[in-house]
Design brief:
This protein has 383 residues and is an alpha/beta fold. The protein has a single domain, classed as Alpha-Beta Barrel (TIM Barrel). The protein contains 15 helices and twelve strands. The protein has helices spanning 5-30, 66-69, 72-81, 85-91, 95-105, 139-148, 165-174, 184-187, 197-205, 234-239, 259-269, 288-294, 327-335, 339-349, 354-363; strands spanning 45-51, 63-64, 110-116, 135-136, 152-156, 179-182, 210-212, 243-244, 253-254, 257-258, 273-276, 302-303. Strands 1-3-5-6-7-8-11-12 form an eight-stranded parallel sheet. A two-stranded antiparallel ribbon has the order 2-4. A two-stranded antiparallel sheet has the order 9-10. Strand 11 (273-276), helix 12 and strand 12 form a beta-alpha-beta unit. Helix 7 packs parallel to helix 9 and helix 13 (327-335) packs antiparallel against helix 14 (339-349). It binds zinc ion.
Length: 383
């Protein structure tokens, strides 16, 4: 068939470009190296950082602000949990943790996940401020899920500005909470506020670690980033609280200094400071896993967390690690359909050592699965 000269030229250019790209990628993959040598996986891995949420269906008490509901992120979150809005409306929010537990139950590597409640913003009257709260996941909702599913553990959340915050902590501990989670930038908590000292002392008394997010927060439609400055955690650290600042406080800068470097300095100073490797393989955090695994300050302080459900979105794929992983590894991880197993395999292939995968089971005081029988909390402001 007759092909015109310009067309021929164009085809040759495309073929040359394709060959160039192929050779480049082949070259890069030949020198693919993980951040650290690969180690075998330990058994019985615990994921200490897993989210659940709900829209309030079935009387769950969960809450999502209209602003977030109308944001493009909302549909992605629902899909990543493996549910649809219609299903939730018909079957209730319990479907979310039920699906999480079922997917986790199929994992080859993870045996348990700590699912996190999320308290809201507390107004000056001591009540939950539903205008300022973007997402609210009540402790009771998470506790009920952990009672239904032995592979889910209770991660409580208590805003320290609640008038009955200390009673809430005791209640949470009695009901098997393994940690207390804060999102200071979203819950409007200043971790360096001296008024929080009694709360911190209660955490120590109850042996409850504080999982407090640091760094910039971009999963919500708005955040007060100054509360995420790792330096603000100095007060609870000095008092002796076991603090876990997840994902090495990525991302962002404070006073011109990278947030993760500020956290590293604190880690060198305080042996009671831990972090996790949740979300560090996300597209917006490329390079952070390498930093976490290599920084001497974080050695012996990191634990495995997934940040589910974000790990179940396009934000995470082994294809972002061309040059770190071989094509064979990339294809093997892509074929893994269980989101937890894909996360574990990706982090292992990038050089996450076995001790990180097994640390959370050691740091947390995991009581046996049978807990105190469910006892509804007395009604109090903000309930
Ligand atoms: Zn998270």
């Amino acid at each position: 068939m007759f092909i015109s000269k310009p067309k021929k030229k164009w085809r040759r250019r495309v073929a040359t470009a394709a060959l160039g790209i192929f050779s480049f990628m082949l070259g890069v993959s030949l020198f693919a190296r993980p951040y650290r040598p690969i180690e075998p996986l330990p058994g019985g891995i615990v994921d200490m950082h897993c989210h659940v949420a709900g829209i309030g269906a079935g009387g769950s008490g969960c809450f999502v602000s209209p602003k977030l509901r109308n944001s493009w992120k909302f549909g992605i979150y629902l899909r990543s949990f493996g549910v649809s809005r219609k299903e939730l409306e018909q079957l209730g929010d319990d479907l979310v943790p039920d699906r999480v537990a079922a997917t986790l139950g199929q994992s080859k590597y993870i045996t348990q996940a700590v699912v996190l409640a999320l308290d809201g913003v507390i107004g000056s009257n001591g009540w939950l401020d539903t205008n300022l709260t973007e997402v609210y996941v009540p402790n009771e909702f998470v506790l009920a899920a952990t009672a239904r599913h032995p592979n889910l553990r209770f991660g409580a959340s208590v805003n320290p500005y609640r008038p009955d915050a200390l009673e809430r902590l005791t209640w949470a501990k009695e009901h098997g909470a393994v940690l207390v989670k804060w999102l200071p930038a979203i819950m409007h908590i200043d971790p360096s506020d001296p008024r929080l000292e009694p709360f911190y002392r209660k955490l120590i008394e109850l042996k409850l670690p504080l999982l407090s997010h640091a760094g910039q927060e971009r999963s919500f439609s708005g955040a007060t980033d100054s509360y995420g400055d790792p330096e603000k955690l100095r007060l609870p650290l000095r008092l002796g609280v076991t603090v876990i600042a997840p994902h090495i406080a990525s991302t962002g800068k404070y006073d011109g200094e990278r947030s993760s470097e500020r956290l590293a300095r604190l880690a060198a100073e305080f042996p009671n400071l831990y972090s996790d490797i949740s979300s560090l393989t996300q597209l917006n955090k490329l390079g952070y896993l390498g930093e976490a695994l290599r920084a001497p300050e974080f050695s012996g302080r990191l634990m495995y967390g997934s940040d589910f459900p974000l790990v179940n979105t396009a934000l995470v794929t082994p294809w972002y690690y061309w040059g770190r992983l071989t094509p064979r590894q990339i294809f093997a991880i892509t074929r893994e359909k269980n989101p937890w197993d894909a996360d574990v395999l990706l982090k292992q292939a990038l050089g996450t050592p076995a001790e990180i995968f097994s640390r959370s089971a050691k740091v947390f005081d995991f009581p046996p699965a049978a807990k105190t029988p469910f006892k509804p909390r007395a009604l109090s402001p903000g309930s």
